[in-house]
Amino acid sequence: QVQLVESGGGLVQAGGSLRLSCAASGRTFSSYAMGWFRQAPGKEREFVACITWRSGSTHYTDSVKGRFTISRDNAKNTVDLRMNSLKPEDTAVYYCAAAFFRGTLFPSSDNDYDYWGQGTQVTVSS
Predict the structure, then answer these.
(1) Maximum distance among all alpha carbons in the chain?
(2) Please, are residues 107 and 50 in contact by the beta-carbon 8 Å criterion?
(3) 96 and 4 in contact (C-beta within 8 Å)?
């Protein structure tokens, strides 16, 4: 079992920044990668970014490249998502997730992930 708790969401004006954090506990040593997803009202949950625990390799969805940065702290078992130049379309509930290795270098599908956090709301005003 892996437990995930997100924090850091809130309300920010367009162009502003936020940092989300995900604290992982439990059998974190057995997970391969961590990801961030988001779900806007009336839309399906979508992949945002992921990072592998061992090498720190990262992958982003196109819409956040150059604006968002995912990072991990292996000692603290935390994964952060630094979000800059936020846009109103970034408004969503953001979820942290943990994936065990299934052969995908950069897991980016819901089905690739085994454990999920409760989510944290990010609202970007125009």
Answers:
(1) 41
(2) yes
(3) yes
